[in-house]
Specification:
Keywords: DNA damage, Methyltransferase, Transferase. GO terms for molecular function: methyltransferase activity. Pfam families: DNA_binding_1 (PF01035). It comes from Sedimenticola thiotaurini. This is Cysteine methyltransferase. The chain is mainly alpha-helical and 115 residues long. It has a single domain (7-99), classed as Arc Repressor Mutant, subunit A (Orthogonal Bundle). It has six helices and two strands; from the N terminus they run αβααβααα. The protein has helices at residues 7-16, 26-32, 39-48, 74-85, 97-100, 106-112, and strands at 24-25, 60-61. Strands 1-2 form a two-stranded parallel sheet. α1 (7-16) packs across α3 (39-48) and α2 crosses α3 (39-48). The mean pLDDT is 94. It binds a DNA duplex (13 and 13 nucleotides) through α2, α3 and β2.
Length: 115
DNA sequence: CGACTGACGCCGA
DNA sequence: CTCGGCGCCAGTC
């Protein structure tokens, strides 16, 4: 049944639910992970994410669709590259949320991540 | 305990 | 569309 893992773990598992070819915002992940108001914590958690978990950190962007890292920075470039590789269009360091924003199906979501 | 710091979010200028 | 300011939350000093 529903267990109650450490916040970081819940965040990782939620991010793992974001499908290839789509992106989600930090705040959206925080909400889905049951941590409303903690968008900033999502960024931190992604930084701590164990490599073996294969967390798709690059699918997380700001609510307005912009990549959180400074445009042109090493991290921003790598994130853009990862996204482009799976078909997500990135222009001017930003993604069109109306087109690539992930709108999770509630039923499937509950099934997929029982905390 | 207060000040400062972010992979944030929202709103007004 | 870009900035600036402010709220927010968990850490760190």
């Amino acid at each position: 049944m529903a267990t109650k893992p450490h916040p970081h773990e819940r965040i990782w598992r939620t991010v793992l639910a974001v499908p290839e070819g789509y992106v989600a915002s930090y705040g959206q992940i925080a909400d889905l992970a049951g941590l409303p108001g903690r968008a900033r914590m999502v960024g931190k958690a992604l930084g701590f994410a164990p490599d073996d978990l294969q967390v798709p950190w690059y699918r997380i962007v700001r609510s307005d669709g912009r990549i959180a890292f400074p445009a042109g920075s090493e991290y921003a470039e790598r994130q853009k590259q990862q996204l482009l590789e799976e078909g997500v269009v990135v222009l001017k360091n930003r993604i069109k949320m109306n087109e690539f924003g992930w709108k999770p199906d509630l039923a499937e979501l509950l099934m997929k991540l029982e905390f």
